[in-house]
Amino acid sequence: MIPQTSYERSPLPRTEILDTARRALDDDALSPDEARELVRLLRVHVGLLAPQVEELARSLPVGEQGRSLALASVEEAQRKLRAGPTAGIGPERRAQQLARMCRALVFHEEELRRARTRTLST
After folding, report:
1. Which residues, at least 6 apart from 5, have a Cβ–Cβ distance to it below 8 Å?
2. How high is the pLDDT of residue 85?
3. Confidence of residue 36 (pLDDT cuts 50, 70, 90)
4. What pLDDT, on a 0 to 100 scale, did the predictor assign at position 7?
5. What share of the chain is helix, strand, coil (3-state, %, to 5)?
6. Which residues of 41-68 are buried (b: 16+ CB within 10 A; e: fewer)?
7. Sign of the CA dihedral 23, 27, 31, 36?
8. What pTM was estimated for this model as a whole?
9. Most-buried pick from 11, 26, 68, 97 (CB within 10 A)?
10. Name one Pfam family in it (predicted).
11. 43 and 84 in contact (C-beta within 8 Å)?
12. Does the pLDDT at position 2 exceed 50?
């Protein structure tokens, strides 16, 4: 039997994460202060999502569909967090990058959860 992951014990508020990402991607005229606040929030979201997606991916058998793609996204997310503010990129663009990363991690989490359910039911 596959043990329960910490994500299954305490899921993150996906709606809140996706709403924050949507604000960063949909708003064409963010003020610099709004963009900086979104960067702060999105960094927190990525920082919480990445380890949970990684744990969920690693709980699946090697070769399981989506596992390696999810782990690649986790590595990219970790690189983005380590990079901090990127030279030459303003806060609005940084918020958009992090928002896309949040969306990707949420997508992978959902796909991995479905794969995990299939694995547990077999």
Report:
1. 52, 55, 56, 59, 116
2. 66
3. very high
4. 47
5. 75, 0, 25
6. bbbebbeebbebbbebbebbeeebebbe
7. positive
8. 0.85
9. 97
10. DUF6415
11. no
12. no
